[in-house]
glutaryl-CoA dehydrogenase (ETF)
Amino acid sequence: MSVSMARPDPRDFLGVEKLLSDEERMIAHTVREFVTDRILPEVAGWFERGEFPRELATEFGELGLLGMHLSGYGCAGLNAVSYGTACLELEAGDSGLRSFVSVQGSLAMFPIWKYGSEEQKQEWLPRMAAGEVIGCFGLTEPDAGSDPAGMRTVARRDGSDWVLNGTKMWITNGSIADVAIVWARADEGVRGFIVDTKTPGFTANTVRHKMSLRASVTSELVLDNVRVPGDAVLPGIVGLKGPLSCLNEARFGILFGAVGAARSCYEAALDYTLTRTQFGKPLAAFQLTQSKLADMLIRVNRAHLLALHLGRLKDAGELTPAQISFGKKDNVAQALHVAREARAMLGANGITLEYPVIRHMNNLESVYTYEGTNEVHTLVLGQSITGIGAFK
């Protein structure tokens, strides 16, 4: 069989897009166009000012991006690869915007869809899918990050009601959320609660002075004798399996999303070095530059192939939590390497918001940590390989 002599597309070197179905490819192009037209002209300003425009929620809803991998209740019911591909294109715009979509769909909507009563699903999911109601996910605490079993937030029964007390930290969307999925210790184990953020005793304090995910809202949640009715509890789950299953859904979106951030940085470096002239020729004509571009190209395409493979496994019902850890750990690490390399290749221009690289690089430092630190995913893989847990 002959080998084609055509030059591969430097922006999709292995032709990964050809491996997508027509519907998956259409979703990729639609989200990419939205990011190009709506996000990229504004995102540097949002990042610099530390703001997330709330109207984006309904715009995401109109595109069908919120809870798109869930079925019914106004959700699109698309496959896992479609969801992952949308996350990839969103994060090519900004990690914070992909975080919003991930938290809304995988951390706030998914537990209601998976573990909620029919009444809870009907009440919340259609409005959340439309972006009319914004959700957040309250698991992490000031003293319980990687060890959620150490949470101190408690829920006690009081007649037919529940009363919640505790503090949650590093909560995406917290200060703009209309509803919070709060996980707390009860007598029978960890339970999830749907909490209207207007409930007395509920306070959300925005985290300031952060240098990463600035186009995303991060908050502290304080629950001071927050009283919720008995039907606010998610009836379908007791124990840490509940929140951990939600995190797996979010981590799946991250392992795709990181590819988008890496691709954006690689393309910025490619465009810059092709047009920037030093010593009488483009930077791209130097051997060291080409070596760096080739390395970045390999990392981006390899990460994309891994994400697509894991997406196909998820759609087949065969994806394990350890395999999600594999993808999240390695793809974020590859994306960080590409971002740091691109930052250096752009020289002084690499630290300005005129280019996307420093924004992606700073954002990826958070992505490296959240939804399971790199070290936690390492131990998940270690336990899967050996059968021995080494978390304690």
In short: The first strand starts at residue 71 and ends at 72. The chain has eleven helices and eleven strands. Residues 23 and 361 are 31 Å apart (CA to CA).
